[in-house]
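Regression test case RT-17, inverse folding.

Input:
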């Protein structure tokens, strides 16, 4: 069984884990859903969910890899050799490969807009011209697929160098740059007339907007934003070599960082949208239709667009390279493959799914439903049940080096009772909308 190289320090793990989770969910969905679902009320509920459920569940996922020094499938087998829970490891692997493949169009759009922001291609276009620009690019499936392949090659280039010299080093470089970009954009957009309305949309509490659906949205956003059940946290846990590391503390730092990242994303985007009197939307419409219009209307829009899409791409890239590394780490250990072979083998299903997703919108939607509503839900549920009842929460606490009695009680209540119920609620809610 091939042993994978570990991180050089716990900060290497923390930065890579933040990069893994800090993907497109935080940048293009979080700002809108906050404002549309009660502002400060949604943020407070989001923080509460991450504190009560997210941190304990991430601790469990990391601890499984950390305790066994194995990646997913073999980690489950090491702890519970007589159970069938090792099958959950394959589910995590499928979740990772599928999300890298079916989100290919999104990565291509981000990459394309980074390139054209330097060229200023959409600067000066009317709102209809911006829509036509996006539609023309998206209709050219060959070009979209080409941008995906370039992004994949960049991922592979980083992974070839290994854990410390590859993904850890790139995370240490890119994440500080990302947060500097976010700070620079926020300072600039807050100077736009009317920007305060965007801040109010994000932060002012509005009880009338917070409903039961808002709570379900908050639960789903928290689970998706943390990247739980996607293989990465468990594999990266096996890369931590300091036996005395407090896994709960590290998981807390990661989760709190992601809360702040989501809020910073809101401060980047919403003040500019409100300051230019544009419609607040989410997803594709916000990132590739509304914002290019906003950049055309604000002072220094050309430079702001470069900074924004550079930051957007860094977030997307660190996420994709993190998920890809998790797949490679599992394959090198489980099947005793060398790194290059594992990288190339794992690229095959990713490219196939990407090609299907890019060329068929219905398949893209189907993959998204399967991933979000089923695979990730059952992956997280498997981690919670395994940690709470198969391995046992007391063993998780011991393996995570948790000493604080309050935190121990927090872990027991969350993992054994609250988290499984919350996951089941998310799952069942999809059938009653």
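Golden output:
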């Amino acid at each position: 069984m091939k042993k994978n190289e570990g991180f050089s320090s716990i900060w290497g793990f923390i930065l890579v884990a933040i990069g893994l989770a800090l993907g497109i969910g935080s940048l293009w969905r979080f700002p809108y859903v906050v404002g549309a679902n009660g502002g400060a009320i949604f943020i407070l509920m989001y923080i509460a969910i991450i504190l009560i459920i997210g941190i304990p569940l991430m601790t469990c996922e990391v601890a499984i890899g950390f305790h066994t020094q194995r990646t997913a499938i073999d980690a489950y087998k090491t702890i519970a050799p007589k159970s069938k829970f090792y099958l959950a490891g394959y589910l995590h692997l499928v979740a990772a490969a599928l999300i890298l493949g079916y989100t290919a169009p999104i990565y291509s759009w981000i990459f394309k807009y980074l390139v054209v922001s330097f060229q200023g291609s959409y600067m000066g276009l009317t709102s209809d011209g911006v829509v036509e620009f996006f539609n023309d690019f998206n209709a050219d499936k060959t070009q979209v697929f080409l941008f995906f392949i370039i992004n994949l090659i960049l991922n592979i280039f980083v992974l070839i160098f290994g854990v410390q010299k590859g993904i850890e080093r790139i995370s240490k470089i890119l994440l500080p740059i990302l947060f500097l970009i976010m700070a620079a954009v926020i300072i600039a957009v807050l100077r736009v007339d009317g920007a305060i309305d965007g801040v109010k949309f994000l932060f002012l509490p509005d009880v009338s907007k917070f409903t039961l659906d808002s709570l379900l949205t908050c639960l789903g956003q928290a689970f998706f934003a943390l990247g739980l059940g996607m293989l990465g946290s468990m594999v990266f846990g096996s890369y931590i070599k300091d036996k005395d590391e407090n896994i709960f503390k590290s998981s807390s730092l990661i989760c709190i960082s992601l809360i702040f990242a989501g809020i910073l994303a809101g401060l980047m985007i919403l003040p500019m949208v409100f300051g230019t009197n544009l419609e607040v939307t989410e997803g594709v419409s916000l990132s590739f239709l509304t914002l290019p219009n906003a950049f055309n209307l604000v002072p220094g829009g050309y430079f702001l667009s470069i900074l924004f899409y550079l930051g957007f791409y860094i977030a997307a890239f660190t996420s994709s390279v993190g998920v890809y590394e998790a797949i490679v780490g599992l394959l090198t250990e489980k099947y005793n493959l060398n790194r290059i072979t594992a990288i190339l083998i794992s690229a095959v299903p990713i490219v196939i799914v990407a090609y299907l997703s890019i060329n068929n919108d219905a398949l893209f939607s189907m993959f998204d439903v399967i991933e979000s509503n089923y695979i990730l839900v059952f992956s997280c549920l498997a981690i919670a049940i395994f940690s709470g009842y198969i391995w046992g929460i007391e063993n998780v606490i011991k393996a995570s080096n948790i000493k604080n009695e309050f935190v121990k009680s927090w872990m027991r209540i969350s993992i054994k009772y609250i988290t499984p119920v919350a996951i089941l609620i998310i799952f069942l809610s999809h059938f009653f909308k």
